[in-house]
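User: quick one, fold this
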Amino acid sequence: MVQERVLPKFSALQTSITREEGLILYEDMVLGRTFEDKCAEMYYRGKMFGFVHLYNGQEAVSTGITKAMRPDDFVCSTYRDHVHALSAGVPARQIMAELFGKETGCSKGRGGSMHLFSAEHNLIGGFAFVAEGIPVATGVALQSRYRREAMGDPKADQVTACFFGDGASNNGQFFECLNMASLWKLPILFVVENNKWAIGMAHDRASSETEIYKKAKVFGMEGVEVDGMDVLAVRDVAQNAVARARAGEGPTLIEALTYRFRGHSLADPDELRSPAEKEEWLTRDPIKSFQAYLMQQKLASQAELTAIDKKIQADIEEAVTFAEESPDPDPKDLYRYIFVED
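Assistant:
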């Protein structure tokens, strides 16, 4: 079975999108999937090293959340951060170069897969330790409110989206930061990507309250559950949460029910999850579902979507070429970027 919880139902009648909006959402999801597939290829060819955690299957969450935000809003990620970075606008070539450990990478080749960062795109980091990014994102949301209310900056109305997994929802940082965010009415979205598994630990075995969004009630916070395999459902929830946050109404805890199509990392043989479970979730592929929706609603033709697929494939191939041809970091810069430079 998919899972014991009944996934939230979503009807196309509940929302409406323009052709332009639909193509933006589709292209972003396909970009994420294509990039991750290429990462797997490069990893197994020995072009990347260390741990690489892919996002396949969860694209509707990243796309649905970030495309409901403004480019100047903030995004905080985890060790599964490639697609969040792409959705936030970081160029694929900069991310690929980072994974190759090159100077042209978004973290100058110092971060690798789990530590992507881009000040230009307000990507405040990928964080390797479970729940590590939650306090950082909470601090970023605090500075937005402080700048707006204490310093009188009317332009400081940015919202922060903090992504993390179901395993992180049992960590102390989660509870402490939800409490502070609620007390101070911070403009932040806490986005739990519940893919059912914290590495090899099934969520239902690890949490005394398996419906994570209900934990928001303890802090007087808005909590909502959404089908994380439906990009339109995620976008609708995100739009409401962003509007509340920007209006000074405080944070929202969003639990997106989703599933990763690959193992925890590329070093994981993925033997703990049952084949039946994986096969059933594959039938809910968010990209295929949205592709069908766009054609049913006559927002795009198969030829147009195929053209997008080919364009993105070419862009990813170019990103690989860029990464391969980029220079390695210079050893003389070993101690650079450790401290703020004048």
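User: anything notable?
Assistant: The chain has eleven helices and seven strands.
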